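Assemble and predict.
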Amino acid sequence: MEYLKYQFKSLEKIPTKVWPGAREGSIHIARGIALAIRQKQQEGEHIVLGLATGSSPIQVYQELVRLHREESLSFSNVITFNLDEYYPMTPGAQQSYVRFMHEYLFDHIDIKPENIHIPDGTLPLEEVESFCKAYEKKIDALGGIDIQILGIGRTGHIGFNEPGSFETSETRMVRLDALTRRDAIKDFLNEENVPYRAITMGIRTIMKARAIYLMGWGQHKAGVLQKAIEGPVLPLIPASFLQNHPNVKAYLDLGAAEELTRFKSPWLVGLCNWNDDLICKAVVWLSKEVKKPILKLTSEDYNEHGLSDLVVEYASAYDINIKVFNRLQHTITGWPGGKPHADDTTRPERAKPSKKRVIIFSPHPDDDVISMGGTFLRLVDQKHDVHVAYQTSGNIAVHDHDALRFVEFLQEFTAAEGICKDDGVADKMYKKMIKYLQNKRPDQSDIAEVRRIKGLMRRGEARAGARFCGLDDDHIHFLDMPFYETGRSRKNPIGEEDIEVVVRILEEIKPHQVYAAGDLADPHGTHRVCLDAILGAFDRLKEQSWMKDCWLWLYRGAWHEWPIDEIEMAVPLSPEELLRKRRAIFMHQSQKDRPPFPGNDEREFWQRAEDRNRATAETYRALGLAEYEAIEAFRRWKF
Ligand code: F6R
């Protein structure tokens, strides 16, 4: 939060406001929209809103719905135009933007159906062009868009204006970029189902709006947002055209703002209030810039890279180097549960009690071993009382053909053994599932029985992984948090029962250490919701006496690692330990080769985990610390 104080924005060519989280930023945007709607109402006029879909605007819509329900905000004078729709796409399909808009907004407010406009994905090809022209005309005829909200794709697209789009482009049919299609797999189950085309408003259509909010939530958007906000205006980054708009604002959360210069290297854009965290960040950055280990950095290196005032404040490069080197050195420990009977003043964990009760929370059934398998094994080897709690069933991430194999196995086994011969109930159920799986359409959510089979498959794999790490079955817990059980990638918001299940297991075990996935920068994903449930549970239990001894360590999911300067515990892994970790990940057979949700990374999970752990070790080595095969990293959550 300290970084929010930096006011140096000289490189930002789109006015940018950074919020602690997506929620705060979204509420602000929704209130801005509500104010404009009310003003127009007072003047007896309509207002035209340009709307987006995707994960970015969800919390804006949630707040607008709340304002409608609780603060009588009416949408009777609101006319909307959506940015885009896949082509081809039927309105009822799960992935359709028509359905998205109804589920998140339109069905919960008093907007007139005739005031809703969304590009039509059902048109025959030859009618698309005239539809697009009419869409433009209609926007103009209604006085143009008053407020446009936008998300940004990782290609830099706004709407579906992919790299290479012209500034003069208007509503039209476009081809989707390969990266955009890969990002859409989460909604379409597999790549073959993702449409190749879409109908989208053009850059000019968007730029004609009177006011624009560009939203960016999450670390995965940080790179492209930096280019759009600080880089040159280029068709290669279509969002950079927004730099030429007279009334645009970018709203980002901390994760999305990470690559902006005022966060990444604030010393390059102004004077800093130096504190230990920022000094560490600067020294790690400098060491990387000049490709030298920390203890070899000279005053000249500092002076030549915008860090002269740091040297002035600390008198010598030598003092700064030692200070930061020691700090990083003290993060390294082979004793993640604390080293018994050792002086722990500079160790990341307490020595006492020497045998700790530990809960590892795993959002999906394989995050424990992917993200902290080596540490998991060490904690067990070092005789701590380790429990693992799988937060969600993970049932949507199982291939249909794998589920079919299991159902057929059950069917044949049941028949061969003559089980349930008389009533035939089981056989009827198997037949129903087999028929369903063989005829399933891409836009269908699984029936309850199939979801159950898929969940059980993942449960078995998780159990095998945890047993491999040395746990007894009574230390393996399945929470099946309800928010996850929608049968599709779009999840429900966190609810009371989600927090309650976490409260119950914490109360039962009263742990000294809790490990959780800390993907703070992922505002809507399952990991973030799972963390919110844990934080909610900690808040409820904060008065309990055992909570004073309970430390929360955060690991990062499969995608990113903590920045080096933010790591507070680095657990080295030997080559053998890395191999054991790989074997634990191998237990998750349904996720091997090509899981249904591979994200934008072709590598298997064990490869990603090893590459990441090796990269962390390599960074420590390059900074001049000891050389290890691999390192798992953690950060402590302080309440
Ligand atoms: C959606 C749209 C897209 C998204 C962008 C970001 O109507 O036009 O440009 O805004 O792909 O998607 P999310 O918000 O899901 O990351």
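The chain has four domains: 16-262, 271-329, 357-396+446-637, 399-441.
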